[in-house]
């Protein structure tokens, strides 16, 4: 049984197929299955190189110019995929507006959905969160970091003012760079609405913040309850 494609992956494949003469979406799915295996994920697409992509296409790619193949691969990686008009607006915020709050980043590809992998998400949604309130204060595109020598380090620097990061997936080396930037990464098993995740976090902040978060909030910790265990159950 073929693993279902996420909406984001299906969109990228459809757009990439439009740029490849003689290749429809079904054919491209078969080629990509050979190139990256199943299930297809944004992280796998982010790590797919041109040589491997061309080899997987075999004879189907022989007559397609290299520039078109490169453009299709960029689309598969998320570059040039336009943001949809459902996107949300940023809430007004000035430093000091929310005493005792922390800053949280969510890896995202659309709307206020936490559905991104650290190394391939289109942007980070940045929220200011307290026990009583959560505001979306910034949306930070990752597009400018595509040519960075160390993409993971660049992405970590993009959210270096945040204390917490929520992602669907993050590799060990990337996680190390995030931690070195002073950010606590939390990996969730499935995509969720960012506001729902933050509602859970708000409950923790209001009731019993772990020691390290209490220090960030300028409060005295109430207990030694491990934060990661509580949030990742």
Q: How would you describe the overall organization of this protein?
A:
There is one protein chain. This protein has ten helices and seven strands. The chain is an alpha/beta fold and 233 residues long. The chain folds into two domains: 70 residues, Orthogonal Bundle (DNA polymerase, domain 1); 131 residues, Nucleotidyltransferase, domain 5, CATH 3.30.420.130. It has a five-stranded mixed sheet. Strands 2-7 form a two-stranded antiparallel sheet. The chain starts with 6 loop residues before the first helix and ends with a helix.
List the helices and strands and how they pair.
Blueprint: H1 7-18, H2 25-36, H3 42-46, H4 50-57, H5 66-76, E1 102-108, E2 113-114, E3 123-129, E4 134-141, H6 151-158, E5 164-167, H7 172-180, E6 184-187, E7 192-193, H8 194-207, H9 211-217, H10 227-232
Parallel strand pairs: 1-5, 5-6
Antiparallel strand pairs: 1-3, 2-7, 3-4
Helix pairs in contact: 1-5, 2-4, 6-7
Question: Quick gist of this model?
Answer:
Residues 5-84 form the Dinitrogenase iron-molybdenum cofactor N-terminal domain. The protein is an alpha/beta fold and 233 residues long.
Order of helices and strands: HHHHHEEEEHEHEEHHH
Give the name of the CATH superfamily of the largest domain: Dinitrogenase iron-molybdenum cofactor biosynthesis domain
Mean pLDDT: 83
| Strand-residue proportion | 5-15%
Radius of gyration: 20 Å
Please work out how many helical segments DSSP would assign.
10
CATH architecture of the largest domain: 2-Layer Sandwich
CATH topology of the largest domain: Nucleotidyltransferase, domain 5
Q: Tell me the total number of β-strands.
A: 7
What gross morphology would you assign? elongated
Q: Biggest sheet: strands side by side, in what order?
A: 4-3-1-5-6
Q: Describe the biggest sheet?
A: 5 strands, mixed
Termini Cα gap: 29 Å
